[in-house]
Each structure stands twice: as C-alpha cells, then as structure tokens.
C-alpha cells in the first residue's frame, strides 16, 4: 500500500476512524473501483444488481442554483455538454479517491492518489479532454440515417389549422419541423413510414422531452404517384393530420 502524504510532504500515518471508517476500513484498488463503475453502468452484465436499482442509484435528485452542478445519492454531478458527469470523491489524511462516470457512453474514470487533491477539478479537466475525443470517434462510427430514394416526394409544407409543419432536406438529412414542439431528423423505414431519430449527443437540457419523441412513428399519406399529401404522428397526436 502506498504511503500517504500531507501537502507539506510529511507522511500521513494510518489510523482508524472506528465505526465511521469509509467502507468499513476496507481498502480498494483502481481495479476494484472500475468493477463498481462497470456494475453500475451495465447491471445486467455484472449480475450484481437489477437495472432498476442502477437507474435509481444514478439519478440526480437536486440541481444547484448555478444550473450546472447537481447532487444525487451519492453523486456530485456536473453538466459537461452534452452529458451529465456523475462523480463521487473521498478523502482521508494522506489519501484521495474518485469515481466518475458517464453512463450514456459507458465510460468511467477512477483515481487513487496518495495525497490531497481536488478530485472534482481533476475529473472536470480529464473529461474536458476525453469527452470531445470519444464523442467525435463514436459519431464517425454511427451509420448514416436512412433516406428515402425519392426525397423530393416528402419535402414541403403541411398545414393543420393554425399550425404549419415543414419537411426539408439538408446535407443528406431529412428534417421535420413541427412548431411548437420540435425540429427532428427522420429515419426512413418504408415508403409511407419514418421514425423520429434523435442523434446521440443532441439531448441537452431537453433530455427527457426529446427522449419521449425518439423513435416515434411518422406516417405520410401518399397518392398514386408516390407524392406525400399529409403527415400524421399516431403515437403523439392520434387522429391529427397535417395536409398540403
């Protein structure tokens, strides 16, 4: 076991906290902490806990007044666009530890240090380097969103009372604008059917709302020539049709 040090460089002696000892006076390695992180992010694979337990444990319960940092049980989290990084640090004389994870990317960091350190500043600086690199690499691995063979048949404006929806194509992506709800990408399924596609990383402060729309069916009513005449979203607005 590494010797612990005070900021002055003096050796920090080992001593017992009695009943208040962290983890019952047990000592963990980086590997132990990584196994814990893995169990939290992939509960079905670890066999340690149920998925519902993991979701409850990773939940943030309170957003602080700065609008960036959050508190859970036991997490001290921070928003690093577009993800929430969950961290938990610990310190005793001469030693510091950190567990930090981004469940959406299945990424975790652990740190053990034989000295005093601002573990959250370390986590923030580490994720500020790692997150952009991982997100960029993972984005390149994503398959392109499927497009219909005849995009022009769907592009245009569709009206329902005072509301006007628009379908347009930009840089090989088909978009649906539906005021006042959203602007989303459409993934082609078959001639009349698409689904709403939410790209990874697009869910920021509207995470919950956009998640509810993801994969919802969007149906186009086609005439005999294959031209779209109306749009419906049966899972979100049953019986409503935007027409042109």
Adjacency order of strands in the biggest sheet: 9-10-11-12-13-14-15-16
Structural class: alpha+beta
SSE succession: EEHHHEEEEEEHEEEEEHEEE
What about the largest sheet?
8 strands, antiparallel
Describe this structure in words.
- The model has no long low-confidence stretch (mean pLDDT 85).
- The protein has helices spanning 30-41, 43-46, 51-57, 119-141, 207-213, and strands at 4-5, 11-12, 60-63, 69-72, 76-80, 83-92, 95-102, 107-113, 156-160, 163-170, 173-178, 182-190, 193-197, 217-222, 228-232, 242-243.
- It is α+β, with helices and mostly antiparallel strands and 244 residues long.
- An 8-stranded antiparallel β-sheet has the order 9-10-11-12-13-14-15-16, with no helix packed on it. The protein has a 6-stranded antiparallel β-sheet with strand order 3-4-5-6-7-8, with helices on both faces.
- It is elongated, with a radius of gyration of 25 Å.
